[in-house]
């Protein structure tokens, strides 16, 4: 069968990403029982019990990770193909729904500003309580500065794995779909690959958040999940870092609250200071752009975790205003990423 693209499919390829981003940006943060991430978490939790019971080993953890990704990927791929067989409009709706469920710009903004307002109202206990929705660290004894630092660090990290990496793997899936058409002569393959790419990434990221810890329980079992998440985030985090540097440069023109030279110098010096091979990419830029120190000592389940300080000696401590500035950087970075990847898709499609 000769491959033929109709106008609806042409437009479809470019619409899901910007539309999903805009919808999530304005309604993000809403969680419900049938939220895709909840369903994925339930499937993963069920499979974890099975594989952990078999063996608390690296091999068993690796099998758990691979099998879970295959199961969840197959479920979503199946829904993809059923939807597109019924109606292109149904598939369009499903794709937008999945993408906006995976993106986190709106939810991140909503939760961060909520904490900012609580701090402004001097409701420290309320801010500590709400911080748990953003960061896994113990928050019971944190002061205003430490709460603000935690929020800024969470905004930086989630700009990477909650926005940049999701968009990257959606785009990568579409690109693979373009080339897959050479072998599989059906346009349905093209429109499904982007969603499958995002699902695979988000599943791997979810598994890292579940078992990717260095503790007695998950040291061996979760090691594969942690390493896979690091590998998958390696390229998209660096692309996101370059875009964040551009965003700080633009914001510096608009307001003296942002320091593009500080962002670049801090990124250049401290990007490898984070225990994670990727986490320092974005946190170091935030530290320099806002002239604040990030990193230091955190508590997780009562266990102390020390990280190198990111930021130069003359930088101060974070405060509630740092939260708003970090959110603005995240917003602009996210918008530029969406525009950039949409243009990449358009250019590849135009020359296919």
From TrEMBL:
It is found in: Cell membrane. One of its GO terms (molecular function) is ABC-type vitamin B12 transporter activity. GO terms for cellular component: plasma membrane. Pathway: Cofactor biosynthesis; adenosylcobalamin biosynthesis. The keyword Chloroplast does not apply. Pfam families: CobD_Cbib. One of its GO terms (biological process) is cobalamin biosynthetic process. Keywords: Cell membrane, Cobalamin biosynthesis, Membrane, Transmembrane, Transmembrane helix. It is a multi-pass membrane protein. InterPro entries: Cobalamin_biosynth_CobD/CbiB (IPR004485). NCBIfam families: cobal_cbiB. Converts cobyric acid to cobinamide by the addition of aminopropanol on the F carboxylic group. Belongs to the CobD/CbiB family. HAMAP family: CobD_CbiB (MF_00024). This is Cobalamin biosynthesis protein CobD. It comes from Candidatus Acididesulfobacter diazotrophicus. The lineage of its organism: Bacteria, Deltaproteobacteria, Candidatus Acidulodesulfobacterales, Candidatus Acididesulfobacter.
């Amino acid at each position: 069968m000769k491959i033929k693209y109709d106008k609806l499919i042409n437009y479809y390829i470019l619409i899901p990403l910007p539309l999903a981003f805009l919808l999530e940006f304005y309604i993000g943060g809403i969680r419900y029982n049938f939220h895709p991430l909840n369903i994925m978490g339930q499937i993963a939790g069920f499979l974890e019990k099975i594989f952990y019971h078999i063996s608390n080993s690296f091999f068993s953890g690796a099998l758990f990770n691979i099998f879970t990704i295959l199961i969840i990927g197959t479920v979503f791929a199946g829904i993809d193909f059923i939807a597109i067989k019924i109606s292109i409009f149904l598939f369009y709706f499903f794709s937008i729904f999945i993408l906006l469920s995976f993106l986190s710009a709106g939810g991140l903004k909503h939760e961060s500003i909520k904490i900012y307002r609580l701090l402004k109202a001097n409701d420290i206990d309320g801010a500590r309580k709400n911080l748990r929705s953003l960061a896994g660290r113990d928050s019971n004894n944190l002061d205003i500065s430490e709460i603000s630092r935690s929020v800024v660090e969470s905004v930086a990290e989630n700009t990477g794995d909650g926005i940049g990496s999701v968009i990257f793997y959606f785009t990568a899936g579409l690109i693979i779909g373009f080339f897959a058409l050479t072998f599989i002569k059906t346009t349905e393959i093209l429109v499904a690959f982007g969603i499958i790419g995002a699902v695979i990434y988000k599943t791997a990221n979810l598994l890292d958040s579940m078992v990717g810890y260095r503790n007695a329980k998950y040291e061996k079992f979760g090691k594969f999940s942690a390493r896979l998440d690091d590998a998958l985030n390696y390229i998209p985090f660096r692309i996101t870092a370059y875009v964040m540097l551009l965003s700080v440069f633009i914001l510096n023109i608009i307001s003296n609250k942002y320091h593009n030279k500080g962002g670049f110098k801090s990124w250049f010096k401290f990007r490898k200071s984070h225990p994670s091979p990727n986490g320092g990419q974005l946190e170091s830029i935030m530290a320099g752009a806002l002239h604040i120190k990030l990193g230091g000592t955190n508590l997780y389940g009562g266990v102390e975790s020390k990280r190198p300080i990111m930021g130069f000696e003359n930088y101060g401590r974070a405060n509630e205003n740092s939260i708003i500035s970090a959110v603005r950087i995240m917003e602009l970075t996210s918008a530029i990423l969406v525009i950039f990847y949409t243009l990449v898709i358009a250019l590849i499609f135009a020359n296919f």
